[in-house]
Each structure stands twice: as C-alpha cells, then as structure tokens.
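Work Package 4 report. The design task specified in the project plan requires that, given a folded chain encoded as structure tokens, an amino acid be chosen for each position. We show below one input record used in the internal validation round.
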C-alpha cells in the first residue's frame, strides 16, 4: 500500500485536469497570440482559465496575471511593487518570519539593493498578531507580505486585520495564498489585500502554473519583459495546456472545496488524535483552530524527523519534515524555530498533509504502522534512550 500524505509539497493532478491538459497538448497547440483560428482556440482556453481562477478567489478576470507558479507570483508581487514604488521615498519591506523562501529570499535580494527589510515575529502558535505588525510598521513602509496559510504547520493568519493596518499606514499588502487556495474559501475582497499569489500544483493542477492577483489600479512593474502577454505584466508565450489545467482545477475547487475540506479535515483529525493518543511524547505544533484542515505537524520527542521520514517511506508512507523546497537541508525548519521550538524539537517534527484520494483505511493503516516505527527508532537512537523513550506500554501504542 502506498500512502501519500505530502499534499502541501504537491498534489496529484485530478483526472479531469489531466484530460484537459492532454487535449491541449495533443490537439489544440496554437499560440494564444496568433490571429488565426488555432491561436483563437488557445486564447479562448486562456480566457476561460482566467475566468475560472478569478471566480475561485472572488476577483475580476482582468486582475489575474498568469505566472509560472507560486515562486514567480511572489517575486512579481514583491519586486514589481518595490520597483513601482522605488521613487516614493518608502523604503521598508515587511514580511513574517515564517514566509516561504520565495518571499524570504526575494527580501534578501532586495535588501542587497538598499531596501530596509523587517521580519515580523510570530507567536508560539505560528500566528502574526496585529500588535506585532503595529510595532514595526511606519509611514515609510512600502509593502507588507504575510502568507494566508503556512505550508509547514497550516496556521491561517488574520490577513484581513493585518491588511487593514498596512493600509492605514499607506503600505501595499501582499499575501501568499499558495497553501490556502483550494483548501479553504479565499476571497480577495474579504481579505482586503492588494496582491495574492496562488500555485496550481497545490490544488490538483500541473506544476509550473500559477497566478498573481493584482488589485485593479495597483501598479506592478513586470519582472519578465518581452511580449505584451498578460497586459504587459508577464511576458512570454502562455503555457496554454497548463493554464487550461489550472482553470479546470479552479472550477473543481469551486464545486468541491467545501465537501472535500470537511472530508479531509475529518481524516486529519482522526490521524492527529490517533498519533497523539497512541505515541507517547508527541506534541502538536501550531494553532489548532486557525488552521487549514488538511495539515498537522507533530514533534516526536527523541526521534530524528529525517530518519522517521525514511522509515515511513520504506513502509510506503510519504510525509515531510517541512517545506519540500528545502528538503535535503538539515537545518531545522525556520518556521518551527520562529515559533520558538528548540532546534531539537524542530528536528523531530513531521508534517502530515492530506488531500484528494486519501481514505479512512489509509489513515488507519498509518496509525497501525507509525507507533511501532517510532518505538523502534527511539530504541535505536541514543537521544531516545537518554530521554527514557524506549518502548511505550502496549496499551498506549494500540492504534485507535
Ligand atoms: N509559497 C508557499 C507557501 C509554498 O508552500 C510554496 C511551495 O511549496 C511556494 C510559495 C512556491 O510555489 P511553487 O512551487 O509553485 O513555486
């Protein structure tokens, strides 16, 4: 049995999406900028996708800029606004400490160009409080970037309140909603933001397609220059098959998100309770209530997360120790560290992220396999032995 519990890294492409992508690859190969009928068919597919993505986030189609994914959307938002605002005298950029590297590394690059960058602290649950933003925002702040949902612990930020604070100080507000779109309802109007990033492969569309929503009237300088695609905001021939897939995934999310979120949320709750009850010395990381329903992050005291990940993989169970984009790195997660976890605890933490196709039978299988695997690793590891974490009593390891 192969069980995939790493949907925050990427998701399987939905069958309906794969059909549309294949149709465009095989039959409808036109360039959306061409005047002839092949081009017009491609353009219609891009327009349809634009309307579907706009509908998913409660936006207008003209406000959607298609990109090559979440990383590019974050770059376009931050660099594009910084460039547009460069001469305004506003020199400060603020982002939370738990942002994805797509934001944090872009900030580092801009710091080298003379921007003042400020990292917003999060509390121990992984939430950016309004007070934290109030404490560092000034009337020289150009842009504030705070993600909607965190990729590692799933916490959902009070974005509407934070955006309101930013606007009071005349700053632009960007949110990276890569991990919330498709999982919970996302409305750009309700959030009150100026820019929002999303990525197709996090909600059952192909990799390499995404979008940046730009509030009508906000100036963003293109980072990719060339042709006039995307109203001159992102040059380059459109990835028509990928965008048709993104549009299809957006339509499916609109239709199914509510039911699917509650189904996945129940499975996650079953997994979470099962682990916390049956494996000793486990701790939940992050805020329990303000969280995307599919994500749970748990520390297993005395166990190296990387070793547990590999042991579970050998059992056919795929999980993660944090952001997939930084896997291979042995640095403790910057998200868990920012939440105040010790390096040890951060390095013993596993993320389980559920999605399309996961079943109750799979969760029960994980709950059967995991406790003895953890016991075995604790028995083997000196850290576990030192912490007195050898075998838990049989009654405690029985799965729920
Ligand atoms: N932002 C967040 C919160 C993410 O989780 C990711 C991917 O893991 C990205 C941005 C980058 O998106 P993409 O993989 O589409 O470039």
């Amino acid at each position: 049995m192969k069980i995939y519990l790493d949907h925050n890294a990427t998701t399987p492409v939905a069958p309906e999406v794969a059909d549309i992508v294949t149709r465009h690859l095989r039959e409808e190969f036109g360039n959306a900028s061409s005047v002839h009928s092949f081009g017009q068919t491609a353009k219609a597919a891009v327009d349809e996708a634009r309307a579907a993505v706009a509908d998913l986030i409660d936006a207008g189609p003209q406000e959607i800029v298609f990109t090559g994914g979440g990383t590019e959307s974050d770059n376009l938002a931050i660099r594009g606004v910084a460039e547009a605002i460069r001469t305004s005298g506003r020199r400060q950029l603020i982002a939370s400490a738990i942002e994805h590297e797509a934001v944090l590394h872009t900030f580092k690059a801009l710091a080298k160009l003379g921007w003042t960058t400020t990292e917003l602290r999060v509390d121990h649950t992984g939430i950016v409080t309004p007070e934290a933003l109030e404490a560092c925002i000034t009337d020289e702040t150009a842009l504030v970037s705070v993600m909607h949902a965190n990729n590692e612990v799933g916490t959902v930020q009070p974005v509407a309140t934070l955006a309101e604070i930013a606007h009071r100080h005349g700053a632009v507000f960007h949110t990276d909603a890569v991990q919330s779109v498709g999982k919970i309802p996302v409305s750009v109007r309700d959030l009150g933001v100026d820019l929002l990033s999303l990525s197709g492969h996090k909600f059952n569309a192909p990799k390499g397609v995404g979008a940046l929503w730009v509030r009508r009237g906000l100036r963003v300088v293109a980072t990719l220059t060339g042709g006039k695609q995307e109203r001159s905001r992102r040059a380059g021939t459109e990835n028509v098959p990928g965008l048709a897939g993104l549009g299809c995934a957006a339509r499916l999310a609109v239709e199914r998100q509510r039911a699917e979120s509650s189904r996945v949320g129940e499975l996650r709750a079953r997994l979470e309770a099962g682990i916390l009850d049956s494996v000793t010395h486990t701790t939940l990381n992050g805020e329990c209530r303000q969280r995307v329903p599919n994500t749970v992050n748990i520390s297993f005291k005395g166990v190296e997360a990387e070793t547990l990940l590999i042991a579970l993989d050998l059992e056919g169970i795929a999980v993660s120790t944090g952001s997939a984009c930084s896997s291979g790195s042995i640095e403790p997660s910057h998200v868990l560290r920012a939440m105040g976890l010790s390096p040890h605890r951060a390095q013993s933490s596993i993320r389980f992220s559920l999605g399309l196709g996961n079943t109750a039978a799979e969760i029960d299988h994980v709950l059967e396999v995991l406790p003895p695997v953890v016991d075995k690793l604790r028995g083997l590891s000196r850290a576990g032995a030192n912490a007195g974490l050898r075998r838990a009593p049989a009654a405690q390891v029985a799965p729920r």
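The domain at 257-382 is CATH 3.90.1150.10 (Aspartate Aminotransferase, domain 1). Validation will be extended to a larger panel in the next phase.
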